[in-house]
Amino acid sequence: MTTTGNPYIPHLATVEETWYETGGERCIKTFKVVFDEEKVREAWSHRPGQCAMIGVLGEGESMISISCSPTEGKFLRFSVMRMGKVTQALHQLEAGDKMMVRGPYGNSFPIEDWQGKQILTIGGGIGQAPLRPIVEFVKANRDKYAGLTMIYGARTSGDLCFKGEFEEMSKSDDLSCHLTIDVEEEEWEHNVGFVPQMLLDLNPSPENTIAITCGPPIMIRFVLENLKKLGFEDEQIYTTLENRMKCGIGKCGRCNAGNMYVCKDGPVFCYAVLKDIPEAFA
Amino acid sequence: MSAMLLNKEKWPEFIGKLAGKNLWAPQAEGDAMHFAQVKEGETPGLDFGNTRVPPKKFIFPQTETMYRFQLGGTNIEEPVIDDEVVVLGIRPCDARANKIIEKLFKWDVDDPYFLARQEKVTLIGLTCTEPGLNCFCPSVGGGPASTDGLDILITDLGENYYLEALTNKGEKLLGEAGDLMVEDKGDGAKAKEKLVAAAEKKINRTVDTKGIPEGLPGLWEDPLWKRVSASCLGCGTCTYLCPTCHCFDIQDEIEGFDARRCRMWDSCMFEEYTLHTSGHNPRPTRRERTRNRINHKYNYYVDKFDVIACVGCGRCINLCPVNIDIVEILRQVKEAL
Fold this sequence. Notes:
The complex is a heterodimer of chains A (282) and B (337). Chain A has 282 residues and is α/β, with parallel strands linked by helices. Chain A is 20% helix and 30% strand. Chain A is built from 7 helices and 15 strands. By secondary structure, chain B is an alpha/beta fold. In chain B, a hairpin with a 2-residue loop joins β2 and β3 (32-37). Classes of the chains: A alpha/beta (282), B alpha/beta (337). Chain A binds chain B through residues 4-10, 12, 57-61, 83-84, 87, 98, 100, 217, 242-244, 246-247, 249-254, 256-259, 264, 278-279, 282, and chain B through 66-67, 69, 71-74, 76, 78, 104-105, 107-112, 217, 220, 246-252, 254, 259, 261, 263, 266, 268, 273-278, 280, 282-283, 288, 292, 295-296, 299-300, 303-304.
């Protein structure tokens, strides 16, 4: 979406709210932002799975997953891990500060095609960010989907994002939420163990189910292996790729995995396609 | 479209007609030819091989301002690209390269900078009658007198220049110098044909590209990639001097409070090009980077845009400090198929 005709020009947005999801050196901070201009707000539409280039003038831009579903309202949410120059600058922003946003970029989860099916999301760490819009979308359109199962894990309980949102889900009968952490902690009431193992233990039926997994590459690799063990077909499995990006619109070159540009042909890939892309798991 | 003959004695006058424009032509600088702006009174000649750096800067500058802003401010100022440029003496391979990368810059989303510059540039090409040692343009769909991307093509016939208008832009420009030239009655065309046929024969390096785009995926883990990249220094010369390499980086530049976001040529041969912030690199060594460079040009680009992203200009061979030779790589690819 662009209002100037120049796709590289970002739009001014205001940070309405921020909070920390996790702590530590690589802490994750969530930003709720709203475009300043009404026409930009109105013209903007994104789908679960899409990303945006967000940044600070003078510091640069980074491609970040949009971690909210369009069903939640006319705002955007980004959950950003503090890693490099741009994300450090983003972390300085507080409510009332300005952020530059352009996009939305990439394809999206074919969530409309999944109507009537069981949705199984399998996330690890910050990998829950692109999955959260699916969860929210299904919750908002609950009558259109057979059910939602969420598996989400992190190294420690302190590394789990969106924690507050899972309590309610755990109580619901047909929205089930399964949390896990790598090692035992005091007062932790949920599972302990790695995400791929928890998937096997839960033993979800592949029947009429779509599985979507996002997380660290090593986790994805084992999740894919275990989904196959459980009898999932390649066509029932989706994941997202990430690569370094600069332009977001298929020009700058660097984000390719084989002949696919992650920014345009991805970030969402069905495993049936992905398994033939040579660099996908490099 | 018209075809004219210009007596070489009138060449300075012809240049005089173009002199009022923002005219650029190859000029000697140190031990190489470079495109430089022609100053008043100067008469550039057309007796040269090719320039060291391809003239892609006219549509895709090495560093380009995307927009300006004040540090701490939120107001964005886009540059106005309205300078007309006339480029004299561009070789057919380099002009063809512009049309090849145009496919990417127009893919789905238009790149406003590239397209604005392309509209403002008039390209006067020069037929190659003495191909370089490592030229292989016919192998990749070009030729010494390929007209793709050109507005005018000039062929040196000895006593005369033979000028062909190829586009309306070219026709208009030739019209402005019409009184210096005579219309060709067919002799010029015939003489050109002979010269081009002779030039084609002088091209020694060839590669049969048949089967390469389809065959490359099957060679993903082939030992050849290690072999052909073993001596690579990762200097990026091959990509910087490539007329079809289009990858760029985006960076912010700040001077006091004046700041700009700009893009600059980047190279897939650099480690940082694909390095994730996490430290993970999907193309960690020169083997993967070389494999990507060859695959991008001879497989991915063909897949997406139906054309090989190489024009056979030979620069990456001529100027590689360790003599890595793309024709030789392609020969080894063919052998491994």
